[in-house]
Amino acid sequence: MKAEWIAVDWGTSHLRAWAMQGETVIDHGQSENGMARVAKGEFQVALLDLIGDWLGTTPIDVIACGMVGARQGWVEAPYSATPTAPIPVAPVRVPNTDPRIRAFVVSGLKQLDPPDVMRGEETQIAGFLFKRPNWDGVLCLPGTHTKWVQISAGEVVSFRTFMTGEVFELLRSQSVLKHSVGDGWDEAGFSDAVNDALSKPEQLAARLFELRAADLLHEQDPGTARARLSGLLIGAELAATRAYWLGQQLAIIGADKLADVYASALGQQGAFVETVSATQTTIAGLLQARNLTRETA
User: Fold this and answer.
1) Which domain CATH number covers 115?
2) Same domain flag for 269 and 288
3) Quick check: 150 and 159 in contact, CB under 8 A?
4) Which of 178, 196, 274, 280 falls between 20 and 30 A from 48, CA-CA?
């Protein structure tokens, strides 16, 4: 198999790659060698272990986004300041690579006030806007660190990051709630918790402990506890981001299950939400980054 170029999404915990012919995916691969698991100086080895079978004797472009461009990554790709196009500059060339590849890393975005940064999401935003060039509104990109992004005239105007996903995982696995939160789901419990947190976000800390008490006193189902924990945290996030989503054109870019959870929570509040595949927008954004690289070559 001979790829024309290779698209790479290199996050903190995972490395994903797609062998490309133009806009078409011809193969894909994934490994656990995220940025956090790769020692400085070993990034090329981790990448070649995944994509080696796609390489020939002539150099091929590898376009990467995500935490691989952080200070602790393969090469530091400086942030571009908002307001700006999602990918305003050509990706940074990685020096001294294997002769079979030419590697480039997409820069992230920064916001000075309030201070905020993103890496990887800018590429998804670019891919989303490529398919919708006149789209104005708000994008929600749920994940470990969920982003809320205001889009106008093809630019990222402002954004806010919420550590909702990370807080959920910490509470579920490392707090007293680890004894009460398990697998499974309860849609009604999730909806009730979203509404509760939206209406009384100041009660969040107390509502969280109620999950433990409900287990001890009423043997609450672990799946219900999980759904309610998610609902409380997402509800508090929606309370804080009301100005972003209320009355706005809104789209969610994310993994299917998590995107559906956010869409459900927003739908309860009467918001009309479009959900979009994170994989598709990432690949489309990396294609735009590749075009910038070729224009400046």
Assistant:
1) 3.30.420.300
2) no
3) yes
4) 280
* 3-state SS track over the chain: CCCCEEEEEECCCCEEEEEEECCEEEEEEEECCCHHHCCCCCHHHHHHHHHHHHCCCCCEEEEEEEHHHCCCCCCCCCCEECCECCCCCCCEECCCCCCCEEEEECCCEEEECCEEEECCHHHHHHHHHHHCCCCCEEEEECCCCEEEEEEECCEEEEEEEECHHHHHHHHHHHCHHHHCCCCCCCHHHHHHHHHHHHHCHHHHHHHHHHHHHHHHHHCCCHHHHHHHHHHHHHHHHHHHCHHHHCCCCEEEEECHHHHHHHHHHHHHCCCCEEEEEHHHHHHHHHHHHHHHHHHHC
Same domain membership, residue 169 and residue 71? no
End-to-end Cα, the chain, rounded Å: 26
The token pair at 201 is: 């976000």
Q: Can you give the pLDDT of all 297 residues of the chain as single tens digits?
A: 679 999 999 998 899 999 999 999 999 999 999 998 999 899 999 999 999 999 998 999 999 999 999 999 999 999 999 999 999 999 999 999 999 999 999 999 999 999 999 999 999 999 999 999 899 999 999 999 999 999 999 999 999 999 999 999 999 999 999 999 999 999 999 999 999 999 999 999 999 999 999 999 999 999 999 999 999 999 999 999 999 999 999 999 998 899 999 999 999 999 989 999 999 999 999 999 999 987 765
Residue 271 lies in a domain: yes
Structure tokens at 243: 């100005």
Same domain, 38 and 125: yes
115 and 182 belong to one structural domain: no
- The number of angstroms, rounded, from the C-alpha of 153 to the middle of its chain's C-alpha atoms is 22
